[in-house]
Amino acid sequence: MVETQTPVSNIHEEDVGPKIEEMRSDEPEEVVGPQPPKTKKRKVLEFETNFLDGLPSAEMYEKSYMHRDEITQVVTAGEYFITGSVDGHLKFWRKMPQGIEFAKHYRAHVGSVHALAVSHDGLWCVSISKDCSVKVFDVVSYDLVVMMKLPYVPEAAEWIYRRGESRLKLAISEAESSRIHVYDASTGSSEPIAAVAGSHSSPVIAMKFNEAYGCVITTDSKGMIDYWDAASFEFPKDTVHFEYKLDTDMYALAKAKTTAPAIDVSRDGSKFVSFCADRKVRIFKFLTGKLLRTYDETMEAANELQRGENELFRLENIDFGRRVAVERELMAAEGVPTPNAIFDETSNFVLYPTLLGVKVVNLVSNRCCRIIGKVENTERFLKIALYQGAPKKTKKADLEAKVSERDPTLACCAYRRHRVYFFSRRMPEEVEDAAAGRDVFNEKPPEDELLAEEAIQSAAVSMPRVAIIHTTKGDIKMKLYPDECPKTIENFTTHSRNGYYDGLIFHRVIKGFMIQTGDPLGDGTGGQSIWGEEFGDEFDRSLRHDRPGTLSMANAGPNTNGSQFFITTVPTPWLDNKHTVFGRVVKGMDVVQLIEKAKTDKNDKPFEDIKIVNIELLDE
């Protein structure tokens, strides 16, 4: 995370370079000339540790649950999470004392769920779709209470009533004009009760109600930011501390030629934040409209952090390269959910998803103090929603200490995933049965996936289960696992039958670790699968790198398997869930150890070529 300098920032950074030492002589000496500035101390957030205890901290998500299609929306309402997917389905999830419970499922829209908005009191949820439909739900009872058909395509929606108001005011913007319509959801009428003129000349793409001041913050497709009063629908001149926008930084997005697809307001109403389209997180002071912070999350900033020495922001080069590739694909894709930034309940922290994981940034000390989900290198989290309360318990559970009852939970949807991921302060449980693991199969996979799986399983029945690698040092007999990893076995055995591996050298040999081969180029950079492209990992809980003689696929990151493979010479548990185990050595481990002892150069390549003569396949 790199912060760009803003002229209104009042947080002083530590000086870079050598520090000025105090004079140590008994008698003070007269100093001639200008005095150097005193070293400024970084501000410290009091009780930071206590505040962080109220946020999720686990490195891995505890559970994930399925939708039938890609999830694009996730919000929190009181003790409930609500998720929406591209097939128009909504799901309600209830926060339990520990973990999550499925509550209700709706086929809400014919088209994709374009946006979800929850009222400030957590009682109402609205969903809109490009099919011009609007659905209003009672969150506590999970009931669908209002259905509206609009004469226009909606773009954004927001509840704009304050606690105690009789009318449930709901603002909806048009996708093809700058108009905003206000409805009274309590009547169920599709006739608006008011229209907001505002200062926008382009479609409004995001709205957020600031209940503390009774104002609505809106942004449009040109990057313009506007305020208006939720009661009078006029500019709140008696509320804010400026008269003209020229006195603020509300033109910052337009100047940068970017937009703010989502907005979040701090609980005290003093700040609002947006993860902008230019991959910068901007935090504004509400009353003055001034920029408080700008955090740079562009690819250039990520590369700079990767080259730095702070281990919090660094990844293995292979892992970083894969994430960068996904990031480029994400930025070029259309119709994918845009990342959002949110405040915690204290208004001292901002959370937002990046290619490293979900960053937790302390706004007082101006530093990133935690990255949630950094090790989840196969998921690119996008939308996030945070729960920090204490769920209602049964009478028996009420006997527990209330302080320890808080179970902060972060819900995330990810790029091209059918799952919603829940992070807590607990790591996932280790279980033997994969079906009982952290990824819950609460939905039947799509039909095309089932057909593909059936084809793979039927092919696995006829696949060889034993392979003998004939090398220039001797024979290595291996048991294969086509039932657990059919695609990997199909790739390996097809290459073996076709003579792809014949004559290839063991190009990488590391004593006390493994021997690697399968690259036609002989330098670790070549080789491809039988399909001509990389294929996915096939992890199985019963197949681990827990012993010498483990046959596993080499890769350049998740789901980048080609033709290269390796055989371990010691247990290597750190490779679990990173490389696909697809076989075990059952005879010829002495040959493996003989190859392992070969003298190598600085690149771990043996001085004397050790080659595969051919690979024999057996059905036994």
UniProtKB/TrEMBL annotation:
GO cellular component: nucleus
Listed GO MF terms: peptidyl-prolyl cis-trans isomerase activity
Location of the PPIase cyclophilin-type domain: 463-617
Disordered as annotated region, ranges: 1-39
Listed Basic and acidic residues bias regions: 11-26
UniProt keyword annotations, A-Z: Isomerase, Repeat, Rotamase, WD repeat
Cross-referenced SMART domains: WD40
Catalytic activity: [protein]-peptidylproline (omega=180) = [protein]-peptidylproline (omega=0)
PROSITE patterns: CSA_PPIASE_1, CSA_PPIASE_2
CDD domains noted in UniProt: cyclophilin_WD40
Superkingdom field: Eukaryota
One example of a Gene Ontology biological process annotation: protein folding
InterPro entries attached to this UniProt entry: Cyclophilin-like_dom_sf, Cyclophilin-type_PPIase_CS, Cyclophilin-type_PPIase_dom, Cyclophilin_A-like, WD40/YVTN_repeat-like_dom_sf, WD40_repeat_dom_sf, WD40_rpt
Keyword field contains rRNA processing: no
EC assignment: 5.2.1.8
Protein known as: peptidylprolyl isomerase
Species this protein is from: Tetraselmis sp. GSL018
Designated gene of the protein: PPWD1
